Amino acid sequence: MKKFLLLSLLACALNAANAEMTAPVKEEIRNLLTRLEQSGCEFNRNGSWYSGAEAKSHLMRKLDYVDGKFTVKNTEQFIDMAASQSSSSGKAYQVRCQGAAPVNSAIWLKSQLQQLRSAGR
Q: Are 72 and 62 in contact, with CB atoms under 8 Å apart?
């Protein structure tokens, strides 16, 4: 029931319109996930820690799932709806870098997104 509710909320929040996200949004998400992969940080999903490469792979699968099914207008929306919590358990994802305390992935990803955008200016 929880999984169904989460998927339903995802569908509503992303405005199910069967439209692909724009190429710039998709590229920005890929660049952000590459940052995660190369960060040396670990990613917690459902109580287990994974490497940045494994995290990128998992989140790319989620990106592929939402692409074409929902209208994702920007990278922040992807983070909020697909990269911040497990769609199966509802547990928040976390990122832990170099022995620092874990933070919710949404906070970490949005911080990295801001840096990515600043570097591109």
A: no
| CA–CA gap between residue 66 and residue 61 (Å, rounded) | 9
The helices-and-strands tally (H runs, E runs) of the chain is 5, 4
Helix (H, G, I), strand (E, B) or coil at 20: coil
Q: How many residues does the chain have?
A: 121
The answer to pTM > 0.70 is yes
CA distance 67 to 108: 23
CB 63 within 8 A of CB 29: yes
Give the H or E element holding residue 42. strand 42-45
Supply the angle between the helices 52-66 and 23-38 in degrees, to the nearest 10: 160
- Identify whether the C-beta of residue 16 lies closer than 8 Å to the C-beta of residue 27: no
pLDDT tens for residues 8-61?
555 555 444 456 789 999 999 999 999 999 999 999 999 999 999 999 999 999
Question: How many C-beta atoms lie closer than 10 Å to residue 79's C-beta?
Answer: 22
